[in-house]
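User: I want to check something. If I give you two sequences, will you return the structure for each one separately, not as a complex?

Assistant: Yes, each is folded on its own. Here is the first sequence with its structure:
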Amino acid sequence: MFDHGDMRTLHFDHKYVQSAMSIAEPHKLLLSYTRAMMGFMLFHAAPRHILLVGLGGGSLAKYCYRHFPAARITVLELSAEVIALRDAFMIPADDERLQVIHTDAAAYMQAQQGNIADIIMLDGFSADGPADELSTSSFYADCLRSLTPGGILVSNLWDRPDFLVQAIGQALAASDWRIWWCRTSDSHNCIAFFIKGSVTPLFRSEIRSRAKKLDAQFGLQLLELVPSFQLVRDKPEEEPT
């Protein structure tokens, strides 16, 4: 952990910043990939249960806790050392809405029965990038199985190419779902949105309209992502005439 003026950062090594926080505004999302991950609101605006894999500096947990007062938030974190920095990153204490669990996310998700979450956000990293055990088709299958109908699995794929999304899609071919993905403009991060079940398809114009409304309310800069949005699995996108 390092402080640079108003910014507090979390590092696993000297190469990459894992999390960044404004000390004056601890709930603000400073890193573009975290704002992009909140793009799930383009598809599901009112989740009741959000499950986060990876605590880091708690940016996403704090943001969800602040902006979704009716939602329950569960965070899975493998590292006791990361959890020990909870107060330093101004993450609220556990209460009836927020719970941080020290656990192996792969084992936790495998053990779940039924539909437990509306949104699952995957941001579990090691010093070298996305944790290998959280990048397998079996782990993605466990996550998808645990979503409610219409739920969304949001995955930070870092700088992995889009064929990884397709490979995961092939592994889950028996399920009914679609994938949108986008790339942030100022980082290596590629964000994928796996949408479970038969939901009404969205055209890019609808996504653009929703992004404008969400940006006006939350200032997430989602509109900047719309040109990069790609639909990986669904019928070919055709705008209505």
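And separately, the second sequence with its own structure:
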Amino acid sequence: MVSPPNQPSSGEGATKQLCSWINRLSLDDVPEQVKTRAKYLILDGLCCALVGAHLPWVEKATKAVFAMEPAGDCLVWGYDKKVGALPAALINSTEIQSFEMDDWHALAPLHSNSILLPAIFAAARQRKANGSAPLGGKSFLLATITGYEIGPRVGLCLYGSHMLTRGWHSGTTFGHAASAGAVSKLLGLEKDSIEDALGIACTQACGLMSAQFGSDVKRMQHGFASRNGLFAALMAEGGYTGIKNVFEEPYGGYLAVFGQGSGKEPPYLVDELTKGLGQTWQSDFIRVKSHASMAGTHGTIDTIEALQKKYGDKLSDLKNITSIEIEMSEAAFKHGGWKAHRPLTALGAQMSCAYVAAVQLVDGQVTPHEFHQDLLDRDIIWELVNKTECFHTPQLGEKYEQRVTVTVANGDSITETLRAPRDVDPGLSNEDILDKFRRYTSEVIDDQRRDMIEKLVLGLEDIEDICALEDLLAGPTLNPIA
């Protein structure tokens, strides 16, 4: 019996099943709503890149990379520069991930657009520069959807957010295979070569979550996955062989190694790699941010906002607050519940539940503007941060559920519990994403350029050469916090 084209083959291990599915997948196999949602997700990724291109830490990265890399054929978005495919993927990914505004997967945390879009664009650009026929929007869309499927599935094999609890930067760890698989699909590799690409990619996978405590490199780590996955696919295209059966190999295989010490039984779930392929679409679980901060802080922000709406009179005098308690799940606590100390970089501020709680109380919003260098060290913010304690409360079973209790000088306390931030449930709609794109890009590029990007992304299937879209990402952009 032959498996349907959108189903994995039987009689193969998990790695080969996944590779067979990637090889056979066509755009006709993808439901219309999945294709439509993917276009809006892509639009959000490009929004984040345009906003991030000239942030100070991105400019620092591009300056260093330009100094060590020769000119090439691939665009660096927001600049009038071209470099090779690999450094282009690295820098452009850093732009998307530069301000904690980008997408994340609700069950297996990773920032898919920062991994996929830079690698796919760079592969298409290099292919055209080498004399091959240009790749169109349909190929680009299919490759992106393929990548949206792979990364989260790898993460689900390792219990998703549990990797954050263990200290791994989950997206960087899950993302190498996503980049390699997406580029392999774009280039039309056969299933054996796709398996080689995944094997080359997975042996490079890693990522330390300690990067979140103020380092520049946190902004770049998804770029390592984008670049390394691109490298893996290009090497496989050239006939270079990779690790076979890389996910299920018992000695030194990806899941065996990253599952060690998980504390779970079993240590990993290999079946999650292929379960529901072609039926359950992982893009349904990709969420888009409305706040400019790490996803685990969004429950804090929304809970504070709910308190402000209900008890505005009690919170009108912020100096009257004596304590703020934030209770959360283990993953959110370890990721965002750490004790913040003055002074703090923009990155550290965006990763701290205590800091963003103070920002929401003071400014009533958490947008890029609040992380301007001149605003990071405000006394009123730090007075509130120092009155804040974060706790892991096991009874809050849902990983996004949070409870905030604010106590004021007369001893009164007000409490609010939210099961999930609105970015998770119900999640931003396509219309919300479009509004975000228009609002934020209007601050960094002109309206004509913004409108053309929007038109081409939402009409991807009609583009004959995907480089025409990427051309609009080159050239100058403004710094939104200058």
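Because they were folded independently, the notes below concern the second chain alone. Confidence is low (pLDDT under 50) at residues 1-9. The beta strands are 71-75, 82-83, 104-105, 286-287, 321-328, 388-392, 402-408, 413-418.
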